[in-house]
## 1
Amino acid sequence: MQLTGKVVIAQGGGPTAVINQSMVGAVLESRKFPQITRVYGAINGVEGIVNEQFMDLSQETTNNLEKVAATPASGLLSTRVKPDEKYCEEIFKVMKAHDVRYFFYIGGNDSSDTVRIVNDYAKASHYDFRAIHIPKTIDNDLMLNDHTPGYGSAARYVSEAFIGINQDTRALPGVYIAVIMGRHAGFLTAAASMAKKYEDDGPHLIYVPERPFIVDDFLADVKEQYEKHGRCVIAVSEGIEDENHVSIAAKLSKNVEVDAHGNIQLSGSGALGDMLSNLIKERLGIGRVRADTLGYAQRNFIGSISNVDQIEAREVGEKAAQYALLYNRDGSVVMDRVGDYAVDYRLVDIAEIAGKTKTMPAEFLNARGNNVTDAFKNYLRPLLGTNYPTAHRLRAPMVEKILKK
Amino acid sequence: MQLTGKVVIAQGGGPTAVINQSMVGAVLESRKFPQITRVYGAINGVEGIVNEQFMDLSQETTNNLEKVAATPASGLLSTRVKPDEKYCEEIFKVMKAHDVRYFFYIGGNDSSDTVRIVNDYAKASHYDFRAIHIPKTIDNDLMLNDHTPGYGSAARYVSEAFIGINQDTRALPGVYIAVIMGRHAGFLTAAASMAKKYEDDGPHLIYVPERPFIVDDFLADVKEQYEKHGRCVIAVSEGIEDENHVSIAAKLSKNVEVDAHGNIQLSGSGALGDMLSNLIKERLGIGRVRADTLGYAQRNFIGSISNVDQIEAREVGEKAAQYALLYNRDGSVVMDRVGDYAVDYRLVDIAEIAGKTKTMPAEFLNARGNNVTDAFKNYLRPLLGTNYPTAHRLRAPMVEKILKK
């Protein structure tokens, strides 16, 4: 019943801070099974398979695997290639030639779609083969998963950035905007909310792609918060859209860049933040307005990785190997929340995950669509890890004035 | 000989991740001296003095002071106000009214200039008064200091960001630019160099304000590195200037914003990064070019504070109190490197620090002006703290190809 042959593990799409935990989990678990002749890593995702760029991870030391597991961003390198029928044919020529019988692909919804296509092709070719998708994405937008490996660490980075930014804008007031990754789902932007400890702390406003971004409403919100607190800290998703579902960033961009999956480039440019900043200066007449685009540090910052995220990422990799090698099954590993706080794993049909996008449920967003609810904060809190920092304020009494000018 | 009266502590200019360590060091030390009737914190720097906004830190708990010390960004809030003669007169009316005899101002070179003006005014008014400048700045640009409190933590943040960014661009190649804070001095930008572990790691190019930024040279450098490595990771100071000392960012900016010290706004906008990114796309024809502006997280990120920086920031605050309260002296606390690695402190005349800027010495920059030397790395290494992370790579052998297409 168990297939004898090789394992290939690959990583696709944007990296995360814990994607190598999943890779190492799958490698270490696969190496325990006697029917596995070798464990290969494909370099640059499916490109590495087609080009026969395999690293023999059966010859990697356990120590170095553990060190790589703690290192952010795909250790096997990545790709944005989305295989079509022709590409899959090439993949199978290589799989057969190398006697590969198990394929573990770590990625988001685009990568899960790749696993689905490759697996359909295997079935159609009557090649005996198990393919499992291992979830990862900082966007937290995979169907069925309570949350995805990579999200907790990115969320921790964003919220830690806002802890400092909130203190900074208390010290030197003004309006501050941070543009955060998230094309269709606002989960990562919403994580900024965890920086708010005291009533007047920021972020004061949070805008996500799930709700239409109306410029006049936005300006009214900013004015209200600025008048109330003397400052305003704002978190905005890069993927915010107007009421007609037109991306606000795309409206601005002169040279729109599109990838193989048809996605417009949103990250790696300060255009959206600068536009919002100018809008506030011009329409509200506020002098000190600053906009940062948090950028690539969000998905791979080594200094604020969630230990809960690390453990879960390791486990989804291990579970993928167990489902394939012990149970001879295909599919996508899904993470369920089964306690407060505990998780468990199951394998689902890849078609339930592939190419679909989960967005924030309505209960996580307030009625006006400019902030999150406590339900969201309760959802996120355990994912940030066990030693999450918090900001403290002086609270001594003020001195009575003498000159009273 | 020892003056009986109150202490006022204030914080000025841009926050750092450890500026509250210095504040708490000065508060805790001042509270030990019997001649000190109260320890006040001025809210919003010198503005708080003029407006009699004092918090009575003699009534703050030691626990809360320690918690605030570990929190980034000025706990007493900050200001960009630079006092003139009239303003100093107002300051002294308040100082006299409250019987303030000691003034500790934590800040950079603009703030040290404030201390100098205030102290000159005190002498001219025959008011018996001790004023000490406590150094802080992420820019590391204060004269005489080997380095300044705040720099180590900001440097650690920048280098940790580049560890992830370097891995990210290995996984998904292209050109990546990060614009880093630093108006006149390139120390913080140069910190990106610590992310380079292996020969082909980024950052591959580093541009600082100390050397003229020549567009054609820049493009030739990028082309060379991109052809060599298939990718290019670049660190650029926000303050880079052309051969005529004209700021590259200011050339681009339509609405130039100028603060009370005559400084042009450089941070809080993605304009410089986007311009350099477009230049590479257009002139070199490289498709995937991304630019991030690291932004305000650099100076107040709670997740990657250097423990060495924390200790030193605490010590400069303590030493300031000791110089004033034990020795009845004025001046600026300076940090010397006295071992490999050890520091010691001394007090210098404020005029030696005030309004001056230290830049990177020639031995820290390579001949072409597009990278740092090992001398710089040896200088920076101990400042990053004792548990600095490092990235690891897989190093198993590649598998021989079978199909060899």
## 2
Amino acid sequence: MTRGVLLDLAGVIYDSEIAIPGGIDAVARLRQAGLAIRFISNTTRSSKQRVLERLEAMGLTVTNADVFTPAHAAREWLLRNGRAPYLLVHPGLAPDFYDLPDRDKRAVIVGDAGEAFTYAALNDAFRELSAGAELLALATNRTFRDADGELSLDAGPFVAALEFASLKRATVLGKPSPEFFLSALASMDCPPDQAIMVGDDAEADIAGALRAGLSGALLVRTGKYRQGDEKRFDPRPTATVADLAAATDWIIARRD
Amino acid sequence: MTRGVLLDLAGVIYDSEIAIPGGIDAVARLRQAGLAIRFISNTTRSSKQRVLERLEAMGLTVTNADVFTPAHAAREWLLRNGRAPYLLVHPGLAPDFYDLPDRDKRAVIVGDAGEAFTYAALNDAFRELSAGAELLALATNRTFRDADGELSLDAGPFVAALEFASLKRATVLGKPSPEFFLSALASMDCPPDQAIMVGDDAEADIAGALRAGLSGALLVRTGKYRQGDEKRFDPRPTATVADLAAATDWIIARRD
């Protein structure tokens, strides 16, 4: 029986800030069917506040507690481990790291920094790691679908670069970290084997959710999806469907 | 019996364009002892012409055929495989890729591009790879000793980033590729088991040379050497010595 649904945002609900047709209506249908929903995003170019405003502008009402972002997980990690952040993130994400206490020890936090991934910034981060900082990856996605419709480099390649240089392994906070899926599910009291994930990233969303123990993971052919993605990573999606509207049909038809 | 010696350049002969004390004299002593010498460098910020001029200015006379660089190996690879270069290299290296024939198919060539490693340049290279280009790494060194005396990011981390994003494996042309060591040895008719490598990079120079079958590899404590490097990578150096002068003593004392 399915009681909870985790939805990715970019590529599932919207694309380049424009709602994907049928998506907002699909969320309403899932809610009407009595399913609990959380939004679980690896997008690290906007603050959570900005994400909520974007969804509101599309006609989707969500509360702060409905949305799980890696930056929030990183804040909790920093507080728990007594470290201050050294940010290698997009300027739009920086507000999520305001107001953290000063600490002697640091952690390099890597998000999808885009143009802010300069040689100088990467080299400074590498030197922080050499001096003892820990390495935190908000996400390890390889690519995202850029405004021109083509795939562009996401945070993952730059995390790989810093791991290679520093001989350190990153702690991954966003998808595909099992803890990230499980914390979203815990917030709605839903065990993983009664939950379905819907995403457009066959690796971070789909393989990640199935490894975390979710009962199903549906790959949508919107967003960054490219032909053949369903066979590129293991475990493979439970099903591959056109979009969130089709995923909703699939979930409601099989919910019991 | 030792008949041939391979010498790294940056960190062994010079540091930031300044000759390391005793190095030039050590090369003369190796030559006087009748040992054949080749210089084998992963430096990819200068053209080969510029490297030769730098050595000449330090009082070391070497011919074009004495120096092996990854760019030369890359030119040969491109001609052999019928591909045109897509360069992600330092501007100083570009002259080594002039005058190659036009081809439909391409290969992305990654060197130590320094500040030229912008997000836009890396993303363009990734899109070339997605469109079918092959990935060639001039080197995979993690770090080099920068002008300020600290370690900075070399080409390797950026090769790792592009491999991660494209799901392609790079063909490595410089050290630690066994072919690179063997082609330098072949040019002086010296079998690997009669040759010694001297370098400051425990991974690319030392482990690389020993994996290529050389009879010995001496790690010098100049250049990028950091305490503990001799234990960081396998196989470990045959010996660790102060500098090229000490390495020369070691080689001449044990040559038979």
## 3
Amino acid sequence: MAAGLSAAQLTERHGATLDKALGAIRTRAYWSPHPEHPKVYGDGSGIGPAEGKAAFDALLGTRFELDQPGTDDWPGGEVSPYGIELGIQYPHPDIDVLLPAMRAAMPAWREAGPKTRALACVEILARINARSHEFAHAVMHTSGQAFTMAFQAGGPHAQDRGLEAVAYAYAEQIRVPDSAEWVKPQGKRDPLQLRTTFTAVPRGVALLIGCNTFPTWNGFPGLFASLATGNPVLVKPHPRAVLPLALTVRIAREVLAEAGFDPNLVCLAAERPGEGIAKTLAVRPEIRIIDYTGSSAFGEWLETTARQAQVFTEKAGVNTVVVDSTDDYRGMLSNLAFALSLYSGQMCTTPQNLLIPRDGIATDAGHKSYDEVVADLAAAVQGLLGDDARANALLGALVNPGVRERLENAPSLGSVALASRQVTHPEFPDAVVRTPAIVTLDGAKPDAEAAFLSECFGPVSFAVAVDSTDQAIALLRRTVREKGAMTIGAYTTSPQVERAVEEVCLEESAQLSLNLTGGVYVNQTAAFADFHGTGGNPAANSTLCDGAFVANRFRTVEVRRPA
Amino acid sequence: MAAGLSAAQLTERHGATLDKALGAIRTRAYWSPHPEHPKVYGDGSGIGPAEGKAAFDALLGTRFELDQPGTDDWPGGEVSPYGIELGIQYPHPDIDVLLPAMRAAMPAWREAGPKTRALACVEILARINARSHEFAHAVMHTSGQAFTMAFQAGGPHAQDRGLEAVAYAYAEQIRVPDSAEWVKPQGKRDPLQLRTTFTAVPRGVALLIGCNTFPTWNGFPGLFASLATGNPVLVKPHPRAVLPLALTVRIAREVLAEAGFDPNLVCLAAERPGEGIAKTLAVRPEIRIIDYTGSSAFGEWLETTARQAQVFTEKAGVNTVVVDSTDDYRGMLSNLAFALSLYSGQMCTTPQNLLIPRDGIATDAGHKSYDEVVADLAAAVQGLLGDDARANALLGALVNPGVRERLENAPSLGSVALASRQVTHPEFPDAVVRTPAIVTLDGAKPDAEAAFLSECFGPVSFAVAVDSTDQAIALLRRTVREKGAMTIGAYTTSPQVERAVEEVCLEESAQLSLNLTGGVYVNQTAAFADFHGTGGNPAANSTLCDGAFVANRFRTVEVRRPA
């Protein structure tokens, strides 16, 4: 390792953090080394708000140099959902030059071993953390998230997910010792003896295909899981959300170079408009791991076609909430209103279908008819978002025209119980900010089923009238089995109903949140504590983050010698 | 749990064994709870030789009742490679009846939890162990292995592999606690609090597709990994090697029923001649896990086609030994001679290509020309197998006509350095027993390449003349990358060559044995200590046994409630 950053320095800086992360994935108690409050940054720890904004502004309209081999073009063209043009140009790869360069970086990174790799990854994350204010602007102006969410979900929470992946990757690699003495008794004869070494070896180049809505949060786990297990990572961001991952690649390259490794272990692949470079990259023989977040169609294409690679996908699902009964009607309504509103429902975890018995539900505020529940929920959303400043802070902007089209089409699907409202952003007049719509559908009608059994990504939810809670539970099972779900919620005061919903989630492999009425929402998961998806239903083939997410990113090679 | 076999009894009987197995996979030191000497059995521990033979004989010509639902036919027709007809009929499933019955068994097995499942699996293995003498005959008369090998590899060693899988499965499931309290500070406000439960849930019905040569050794890992992670297992044996797995299914069903579980958690699917039921089963939506050992063609078909399942395959490879130099020429020759002879080269781990410089090699017995090395190896094999009794004890019988055809075709591929010899079996005159052939090929000739770069499964090995050790290493790399390998061997006294071979194995993901000259052979791996294959080259997509072999057989479902 070169002069810059020694293994000893890395251990001193981050050894304790890695140990705590290893502990957290075992206990799954709350833990994070990355403060989530923007105010914490800038006063000795990382850069502050003004510096972050200035750093972001300085990037606009520039060429994003990364000094990668084989750059043959400089595409760009990101336009913020808030209306400004970023005008940043990124390197487009000649992959016949870049991929061999990345492969050439592998042996030294493999030889560094699991611990040095893990600590170098933590250093990358620490430097990203210090620049959380800069990342916040980058995430905000590519995803459309409001600033605070862009800061938290795109910054500390994404860093947590990255660190969690590093911890899992490290733990997995050290389950086998570096070496072993094997002595097999042979009765009266001498025992058979071998000395065996075990080495974690990488699979090859990993491809990260980023998404538009959560470029860092959904991107970091795969990136760091692959890198920590010895694989170079080629980062192919969504063409509308390049900047957050380009910054990530730059920081990773800096750290790797300082630690004496080839910076080509982490490279960026920007694409020309309409190029679809992911399809070309995904089937290259050098690509042995793919992480993807996005549409089911492309995710399934990857799973089926990129047979030379381990493919980890998060795709579309139909998240469902069963509303049976509650002892905190107001808490339920406000919790659901928030869950539907946050980032205009553009989270893969936002509830879409609310299954409500048509005869109504029992609550602490008396029996509520189906119509009352829907009207009260609509009122709760309206109340939450009545103030434009608060609405802007919660909603953010619609990430792309496709979401707006779906929202505008929503009234054609059923009866509108809550119409979407346009909100003006004081600072960015061109931002497309919309409150969520609630559409009522009759669960017994086939044409309604076609609507609510498809993912309608964005600020549209369906209040589905069902004959009974039993029918709701049957529909829940069918939805998860056929369409998948990242999250399931349920409200009930009945132990029998609770048990039945739980059983469906256990049998169909879905993550369940019960009776959330306070400040935790069904669409939020915390690294170290919560699994994001299960990997066991059609919405995703893996979870963030467990042993299966990391165990097949490397292999263990054994060398036996007579002792 | 019913009266028969309580969780407490299982813990008392097998808790210590499970703990030791968990320790062994961490240290990878030698360990086995299953004695490998036939003599140990019968005197208080398990059934003895006479009883085992009698039990096997009593099965011949009978209908193998398993009391499974949906049995619609009783195919059979196994003929021992030693010439006798087994005449046993096995249940053929109506899969539309059997698969739902297996699914119905899942919830209670899931609820039993990882520990009870693991201990029940250990009980199954213990009962199989007690009947090792019976299994030995069953394995011998389906695989053609000689009795001692059938006893050891088909008995205790297979049981070790099964126990190893149970240990990995159990360890993986308990990495996450049963529950956690999540308390997130909120500054001056009350903390956010959740109580979360975590449950390991099965994927669905697992399909084990057995092989002809090692029905138990290659079958137990997948069977027990799936069962221990909560999945029912449908066992589809090779039609020529049904009995060892039918016995396994029967014992598993007995234990499960005694422990109060539905015996349909483990079922048998025998097939009619030429039916190819594996193709039908593999794409059923209920089948979510597949374990397969066999041809590359069908393995790749499964990997590509059975997209609804996690597919674990061990396929064909071209195992290679680099012969550069040695300080124990005699030891090298006798070690290689044994490796080529054991079970007539019908192990997936038997060396096929011996890469020998055409200018010869340096040895402790002086320089040896290519021709001398080949002649001396041929003489070593002849010496080892000169005595018919010893030959029969080592070789066993050819498992099927395909192997004999390949052997008979071998002389057409190159020059015969050692001709195969027919050996008469004193007890079974119809047994097809053959000594291995060694064929010399010139590695520089394209037509030779076509021969040695294909798997020639059976007692045929190629002494490939190469220009230099460097060329041998380049050919080794190409072989592993393009064709895959379960095992690599190398003989060298040069640290540079050793390092170069090691580097190829690390980069191409192959298991390496260096300078084996004593009583350990390249084709043998020991459970708990050695990985069988790497899962990182074309010969197999998984290894026996690591975290990746078990981690995706279950998912973790989380249920969150406000605390």
## 4
Amino acid sequence: MSALDAIHALRDALGADVVALPEEFGDKRVADWSGLPSARPLALLRPRNADEVANALAICTRYRQPVVTQGGLTGLVGGANLRGDEVALSLERMNRIVEIDAVSGTITVEAGVALQIVQEAATAAGFYFPLDLGARGSCVIGGNLATNAGGNRVIKYGMMRDQVLGIEAVLASGEIIGGLDKMIKNNSGYDLRHLLIGSEGTLAVITRVVLRLRPKPTAAATAWCGLPDFESVTTLLTRAQASLAAGVSAFEVMWAGYHDAVITNLNTLRAPLADAHPFYVLLESVGADPARHNEAFEEFLGAMLEAGVVTDAAIATNEAHARDFWAIRDAPGEYQRFIPDHAAYDVSFSIAQAGDAAQRCEARLRERWPDALVMTYGHLGDGNIHIVVDVPGMGKHDHDDIDRVIYDVTREFNGSISAEHGIGTKKRDYLPQSRRKADIAAMRAIKTALDPLGILNPGKVV
Amino acid sequence: MSALDAIHALRDALGADVVALPEEFGDKRVADWSGLPSARPLALLRPRNADEVANALAICTRYRQPVVTQGGLTGLVGGANLRGDEVALSLERMNRIVEIDAVSGTITVEAGVALQIVQEAATAAGFYFPLDLGARGSCVIGGNLATNAGGNRVIKYGMMRDQVLGIEAVLASGEIIGGLDKMIKNNSGYDLRHLLIGSEGTLAVITRVVLRLRPKPTAAATAWCGLPDFESVTTLLTRAQASLAAGVSAFEVMWAGYHDAVITNLNTLRAPLADAHPFYVLLESVGADPARHNEAFEEFLGAMLEAGVVTDAAIATNEAHARDFWAIRDAPGEYQRFIPDHAAYDVSFSIAQAGDAAQRCEARLRERWPDALVMTYGHLGDGNIHIVVDVPGMGKHDHDDIDRVIYDVTREFNGSISAEHGIGTKKRDYLPQSRRKADIAAMRAIKTALDPLGILNPGKVV
């Protein structure tokens, strides 16, 4: 049984239109955004429905042919990249919205539909789909599930895991599991959905899903705050969560080092406050009932200024003004322009320890590289901190050493080496820094139970 | 290797204080509230910490000795009951609150602590722990996790699954997995937490957990509404979720049959509205900022009356008044007084189909038992309906036939046979009504992967 036999069998069963050979799919992009090495697939499978996926995987199992499932290819950890002995299974043709159920508040979609299409369909139906990230136009729902995507509004709405009611998926054997369930509560046996979510394509291929829709917010308020110390940042967070009736929809903290570097290096950005502060917070609340909502937001911010929790603040007077605040927080999209070779981290801690952890990371980095540029920011309401590091003349060796510094501190604070991006191949060797040996053994046992031949996304995660 | 050898080895390793023999634990209750058959355990293990649990399970694995983990024994499906060849592992001594972290908003507890103790500790620390159910004084956190408990406030705060940050557990082998993580976001490998939640003690013994605390609500409003039809009920739900800024914290629907039966049979209850209506809804909103909150709630209800969505309504004027409304919804605690032999169901559907599904259940029951008492009510915001059935002179045979009617309709509507109570032994034979054959095979493969000898809660769920 050679890979050639597998591809012949696939082509016989599914046709040349579904199973393309390298000379047919040409130079089509088949690697993610990580920049990590990737090979070309032996064939590119583009099934049109769950039955074709099932058929393809059953054949791959018969021939022990490895398969890498690919969605929008916007991942950052090499999770969809190839070693060279695999076929790629692209969900690009499974990109339809199946149904919107306005009474149940659900949208049923194929796994290859782009996140932005789902957001737009929800809005058109009078609802809101809250998951949002920069890659919204390219990333697809199946990939959002495979990586349990996060983003800016997790603090109010949760991660991708929290948006899902039903998942239909195909196991390596070609058997279909799950379904298009719309029940919010379902305690009938093990929750296979949650096991598949975040498993990065190693346990099954997700084919269709039922997502939960939320009411469309009709009120929003956004403020940019300057704060004196990290304790004030956590105080502001706790008080905002207790006082703002609609809840906090974004709480993005930026250390001064981040703020100053992006304002200095990107001339499209302007500092919202006149003076410098050790910490900045972008605070946002969304809800219903604009008059009461905005009045309460202003009252709250006034109380925080009076209490000295916030030193200075600006409230966005309109949407364009709010977008200017968000542009500072979204500056990482523009890093390439001034630090093309930077190292970037996506770690999480308890909220209480995030400040100390970030401080220790920076101190350790400066011991070794006194001139390092260290930019720290993130979704503090979720304990999720991004750290971006640039050292003069950075090479591969420095990059590995910086990895070690960050992940050592992460272990010391019992944090996670991957808050939202996943493990892929990039962080696989560091997984023991975040998980016990027995956890990893249990993951491997589950992997073997569901994919005994190891044909699904081999070499990823575990 | 006999069971006797196992018990000797356990007693040698852990001492007589931890491993009690039948003559020592006497007539202590060791069965749940289901009334299903249960045997006495060969020994009762009461470990004091995770290491003792690990030690005990390693010995049980060595001797292939089955173990049933027991918490508060308040389950309704036989999930903690015994066949007769098992030892019982009680978490009653692991009942301490380990830590409250007010900055991170977390509480760390041992798995044997009662739900009500956690609620009280949260309140004392200025927070709120939202999960709530009638058995709060007896049920324990480990059991709430093992069954993914629900309750009345799922619509705003989610189920037990949504309250958990970290889980430490012991596998059948005696290895400890997981830990006391406080990260809200953690995408480092498979999420073993979510696999254990709802697995009813068949995959591991949960020993300690980190739970998420919420801000304590400072405002609450409660209304009792009479509605003309099911469509109006779902309209009220959708509009309330979109319009009430703080969100809906309870949306309990009662069909007229339920309302009339409990008001007639329980003389402590009084109907809140003068006229009869086909449907009643208990609507509650909790949040911050009482003045704005209550004013908005009244405005919303006024608009619903004007639109004819709600025919008549009463707003609770104080807490005692609100408790009177809740007493009607909580009447199931008193059923034994007028229908001692009833059959009770906990099913879920999409919100849109819940009305038709309930109607079909009632129609099918009446075809066979024209005089049946059918009481339908539930957490409609979660698609979760409870159906209680009493037929004249009900015997075991009737009970089985009623099961079949309800679960057939559940399958026809693609619903779940267990929204919140779990499977245990009671619903095991009906699991194929809610889950695919391939799902059940996958669950069995996972069970075998994590508990190869099948010593944990044998015969339950799968």
